[in-house]
Amino acid sequence: VDAYTLCLSAFMLSSGLIGDRYGRKRSWLAGVGIFVAGSLICAVAPNLPVLLAGRVVQGIAGSLLIPGALSILTQAFPDARQRTGVIGGWASFAATSLLVGPVLGGILVETVGWQSIFLINLPLGLITIALGAASINETAHPEHAHLDLVGLALSILWLGALTFGLISAGENGWGEPRTVTALIAGVVGLAAFLGFEARTARPMLPLGLFRDVRFAVANVASFALGFTSYSSVFFFSMFLQQVQGWSPTQTGLRMAPAFIVQIVVSPWIGRLSARYGHSALMTIGYVAIGLSMLGMCWAGPSTSYATLCLLFAIGGLGNALAIPTGSAAAMSYAPRERSGMVSAVINATRQSGLAIGIALLGALMSMRATNLLTGYLGDAGVANAEAVARAAISRHDFATDAAMGESGVHELYAAAYAGGFHAAMLTAAIGAFLTAALLVAVLAPAEARSAKETKHEA
Questions:
Q1: Cα distances (Å, whole numbers) of residue 373 to 237, 296, 300, 392, 433
Q2: Alpha-carbon Rg of the chain, whole angstroms?
Q3: May I ask the CATH architecture of the domain 2-147+204-367+419-457?
Q4: Sign of dihedral through CA atoms 358, 360, 363, 369?
Q5: What does the pLDDT look like over 293-339, one tens digit per residue?
Q6: Global confidence as pTM
Q7: Which of 208, 273, 361, 408 is 20 to 30 A from 383, alpha carbon to alpha carbon?
Q8: How far apart, in whole angstroms, are the C-alpha atoms of residue 187 and residue 209?
């Protein structure tokens, strides 16, 4: 997972440039082909290094596929209102894959073997290549997509270093030398990238795009979406397994309402956006996400599934409103000839938000849960309570420590883990509400001014 995520993030911006310069269809189909090749490597991998190599190949392919799809849709549907509806339908299909994928994967692993989850990508990928080659029109704007090799290298450096540092922080702690070195390299690389792009005559990423306050705010909202909603999938999964004791398969099924609501609502986003505007739907979406997470602050070991189902559904509604509308809004605020780079930017900010959300909120959850469990174990008379608590929380498994098993304190572990989960959810909820406030204060007035100017010019 880490190898895939690292390469997906590191090559995101460079992949946007490749699509704009050499052809969006060509770039996207190449991504499908590379993903098929990576899947084949994983399926036949005789050892872990080869498997990791396959995941690296898949990650590079993903960096071509994710922004490439949005760029192709932007070129195929120049009318902004129609495009929003199409992106909503695309988001619905994506939610369907998130719902069906884990369940189908679990069945394949149990009945056929783990290699099957990679082998199934081969026929699907080949069919996708055939359909895409026949139905997608090629578009490219090489005159607007400059081959900025220095910017290209710096973008890979800072995105890769930052992602590696955040992954390392979650696994080894913030003070671990590799974590600190990678994070410093990421920050320095970002500063160097921005400095070079601001000075060079032909940048890969025109920073002037961010002078449009609408585009800038859309990217802030995209980062917040990754930080709050996307990262919450990880924390919801841990809560259901560690606090309520469900298996991974049962956990996936219990989270299904979030994806089902997205599947149902997303296709209607085009009509809703045409009537109420991007900023209104995005604002409602972030408020819904915030309410879902705020409600999770009262969830515990005995919370009924009906309550959790409602909270998952509210969060799914928020995603259905925020994800396609935010993507469509960002694409409409920038020139269509830079759609590949714009799509890459909006996805890179979201991916960065996801990585930072898991790292920061995960650290907060672990710290709070460890402190609570230390107190509970001390009151229960367990020797070396802090060490036992730290080991149990870091392993996400109370049963791995004999002292906890002998003391029969599963309930204490669940209560402490729930407390850590509450801290993470409260922080994420605040982030979602602050994003909604930003949209009301900045994006809505900016959209109104732009609409007024467009009407005046017409």
A1: 20, 20, 15, 9, 30
A2: 23
A3: Up-down Bundle (1.20)
A4: negative
A5: 999 999 999 999 999 999 999 999 999 999 999 999 999 888 888 88
A6: 0.90
A7: 361
A8: 21
